[in-house]
Amino acid sequence: MTKAIKKLGRNTALGFLTVAVLSGYAMPFIAPTAFAADFNGGSQPYATLRVSNYTENPNCDSCWNDNAVGAGVGDTISLGVFVHNTSSELAEDVTVSIDSDVSSGEIRFDVEIKADNASTITDSVKVNITDGDAQDIDHVTTIVRDGFGNSKSFTGDVLSSSGINIGNVNAGLSNSRIVVVRIDIKGDSDNNGGGEDKPGVTTLPATNIEDDRATLRCDVDANGDDTDVWFEWGDYDNQLDEDTNDVRVDADESNKRVEIEINGLDSDNRYYFRCVAENSEGTTRGSVRDFRTDNGDDNNDGNLSATTLSATNIDKDSAKLRCDVDTEDADADVWFEYSKGDKDLNEDTKKVSVNDNETDERVETSIDDLDEDSRYYFRCVVEDDDNNIDRGTTRDFRTSDTGNTNGNEPTVVTLSPSNVTSNSATLRGSVDPNDDDTEAWFEWGVVSSNLNRDTSKQDMGSGDRSIDFDTRVSGLTAGVTYYYRAVAESSEGIDRGVVKSFTVSSGTTTNVVTRFIDIFRTVEVEEEPQDEALIVILDSDTLNFSDRDREVRYIVSYENRTDNTLTDALLRVDVPRELEFLDADPNPDDESRGQLVFEIGTIRPGEQDEFVIDTALESSVDDNDEIVFVAQIEYKDSDSIDKKIVRVIDNSRYGDKANGGAFTALVADSLRGFFGNPIFWLILLALLIYFTIRYVTASRDKRSEALV
């Protein structure tokens, strides 16, 4: 009888444990709506969808906008999707998808966040096109970051209706995810995207600005075809809804100055404009400029003038504003109008007195109490005792985010390219040396985040006014989009302009397939199908990560999985500036300015091969530095005369390669999900009850045996 009772007790305990465990697994399926997940409920640190202009403000955490941002054709914009599970339940199989609506003057993005056990939430932002005609967008990369410092590059198409699956998301702000999507804006901007004979256009600053009129100006290159030129203008940079009459520029004219006056304007109002040129080969739109009309009391009927110069001594909370003024037969007051973040210029500095009949009189005024890492706009104003007044052009600067800049480095601006042909282009820029000997050049490449090639440096002198410079680059590949920016350096520091792009024209179609290689494995993703004829794989491996060597080996392999013979094949490898090229097997046929070229020739059906490239990290590279390694194979197949390009991109950080952070992140992410699951605690309680019963039963058995 005693044995039967003991057996019953053990069976009961085991049965209770079995029921508890099974019910723990079964409950989510029996009552799936009992613990419904929810996203972004209540007050949140970020909007569900944000947008920023990555070209103008790379790596800027304070430059996100919840509603809209301005950008031009060729710019890269970033979208940030915030995913916060604000319920107490695990959000299962979370997907993020972004839909886009592209028009010439605006791009709208709509995001959807879904989960198997949560309602869908949506949000939207807009990109106002300020330069060129937008025609399409191109996905660059998608990175998912979590609250623990882990990140993962996705190959899935977040811009498709199905989106990307970022896995399960646990409850709590620390478990939130941020999906960052980089997108290139494609279309017509200056000489981009069209035939080689389209007209060239450069919009110039407006002149003869009065309270009700102004003269709009531009330079036009007809490129051998009779060209009509006019200006689009309006009250907003994204709504140029007024057109001037057109002017004819003859086919043989280049760098032709066109000036058209507009009138009937409102006083003290800001207007935006750009030049447009059209011939039989197509239409080109210049960049958008702006001006502000005088107020009704402004009067300047002589030689009184103000020339706004670049700001200097820029720190995190202060800057020095400068200008040159010319006065007439009366003494004058000079001051600066400025504002943060926009061009309203609603702040005034103190006035400085300047004597009569002065020429190029330098005026400098310091302003402080500025916000760090912020853009400010300013212009110089001069008014004499006869009530004549003149305002200089509006310029801008950005305060430092660290406070360690001396502010006297040169000021450089990237200008639109010109004379883009099937294998070359002219890169253009403008630089103000700020009174110190300055050199200027261009950084360029095939990826906006990896401008690994430099042009020759040019001596720009030591003046205090902006001067233009340009460089012709050749040996380009037809159909490929190139990125570039102007750079200037003096003994006072270095400045880099925004990144712009252009696409090399081609008489034949070029099919470019781009793949970004997964490095971080914090979330499993479904591999994309590979439909192209030539399969290209890029792999990386760490060889020696001691502090001395820090070597990385890249292997580019290909396989022709078709029955076609591929010809004229060659491999181009762009080595980023963070890496030093050591060796390759086989040796490259050409090596110059950060690019390796391997001539493959003919690739027969079924043929496969690989190229081993050894590199070493530069000593200045630290754990958080991003390394972008680009390889592309160009070829033709027997079914078409078109050139095809397969491009693969390895986008990773040194710290993740050196420390094996991917596997650690995976384990940590899994354990966070396990310990945050109520089923774990239910199992733990059942085990505690089971072992307690076992302990009590065993004690009774021992006492019973002792009595017997």
TrEMBL record:
**Could you tell me the keywords of this UniProt record?**
Membrane, Signal, Transmembrane, Transmembrane helix
Segments crossing the lipid bilayer = 679-697
Q: Which Gene3D superfamilies match?
A: Immunoglobulins
Hey, what's the signal peptide range on this chain?
1-36
Q: Which SMART domains match?
A: FN3
Which portions of this protein are annotated as coiled-coil regions?
A: none
Ig-like domain location is 199-289
Query: Looking at the record, which segments are called Disordered?
Result: 284-304, 391-434
The question of whether Transferase is a record keyword is answered with no
List, alphabetically, the PROSITE patterns matched: IG_LIKE (PS50835)
Q: Where is the composition biased (Polar residues)?
A: 400-427
Q: What name goes with this protein?
A: Ig-like domain-containing protein
